[in-house]
Design goal:
Radius of gyration of chain A: 20 Å
Largest sheet of chain A: none
Radius of gyration of chain B: 16 Å
Number of helices of chain B: 6
Strand content of chain A: under 5%
Low-confidence stretches of chain B: none
Oligomer: heterodimer
Low-confidence stretches of chain A: none
Shape of chain A: globular
Helix content of chain A: over 70%
Mean pLDDT of chain B: 95
Number of helices of chain A: 6
Chain lengths: 149, 135
């Protein structure tokens, strides 16, 4: 295993530790982040803590990487629609992808079902998108051919 | 109890931030968790599988060591609803091109406008959902 692979493995494990410490593996804690009655501050605190450290690390060590998506990409309907679906799912399932993956092998039925739904949603989206892209490329090729003939 | 809650939240967040920060700087990965799952089916599958294996493996160990931290099923939600929730989270994250970690941590840290919009909508939609489907 290369050094990078080891670092990535460690990052995955560390991520799980942070989520668990912050209470994110308990769906009740997440759902009570979205209520006034019995509000639980841990989700908000987790995001603040994570942002501070993330910004500090990137400031100190820099991000000489082209892996980051374009910062100035526009806000489009896809982003808004997807975010709405995501929020509804978050409020229904009491988990987002991180806590779900961490609890995947916990044996709890809700965690297993959440992860099955999660992976199915991701695979479904990417399959549809790939098919559309292929059709778009194919359509373009046909157009090119007719234009040249 | 309250003080512990605050320390747990902030410390847990700092640890998560250390993970995403090192992932970006040392491994040049700017993917959140949903992006990693999607990457399992693409060219970066080795890195994605390694990261997710770390999460799943450590999660399993933590569950054995601290079962209490994993609570129980989400209150007021039948299991089929949880399955639907997972599917919406997966589909939504791919449409929005990021989840809580991708937009909420990586994106906000570099003040990306798309991530600010996405993160705000995530929280508003979840809050309204919890109001419509009470705990």
């Amino acid at each position: 295993m290369t050094r990078t692979r080891l670092v990535v493995l460690g990052c995955g494990a560390t991520f799980a530790v942070g989520l668990t410490l912050a209470g994110m593996e308990d769906p009740s804690v997440i759902l009570h982040s979205f209520t006034v009655d019995g509000f639980d501050p841990r989700l908000a605190l987790l995001l603040i803590g994570a942002l501070v450290v993330q910004v500090a690390i990137t400031r100190i060590w820099g991000t000489k990487t082209n892996a980051q998506p374009q910062a100035k990409a526009p806000v489009d309907r896809r982003l808004v629609f997807g975010s709405i679906l995501f929020g509804i799912g978050w409020g229904l399932g009491g988990m987002c992808p991180g806590p779900g993956v961490t609890a995947a092998l916990s044996g709890a039925p809700h965690a297993a079902l959440f992860v099955i739904g999660l992976v199915a949603g991701i695979v479904f989206h990417d399959m549809v998108e790939r098919r559309h892209r292929r059709r778009a490329i194919h359509g373009h090729a046909v157009l090119e051919k007719t234009r040249h003939s | 109890m309250m003080v512990n809650t605050w320390i747990d939240g902030l410390a847990g967040g700092a640890i998560v931030g250390a993970s995403t920060g090192v992932l970006l700087v040392a491994a040049r990965q700017s993917r959140g968790v949903s992006g990693m799952i999607a990457a399992l089916f693409g060219a970066d599958r080795a890195i994605a599988a390694t990261f997710l294996a770390g999460m799943v493996g450590m999660g399993a160990l933590l569950h054995v060591a601290f079962p209490v931290a994993f609570g129980g099923a989400p209150p007021g939600r039948a299991l089929p609803v949880v399955l639907l929730g997972g599917a919406l989270v997966g589909l939504g994250a791919r449409l929005a091109n990021g989840c809580t970690s991708g937009h909420g941590i990586l994106g906000l840290a570099r003040t990306a406008r798309r991530s600010m919009v996405a993160s705000a909508i995530f929280v508003v939609a979840a809050t309204l959902t919890v109001r419509v489907v009470p705990l």
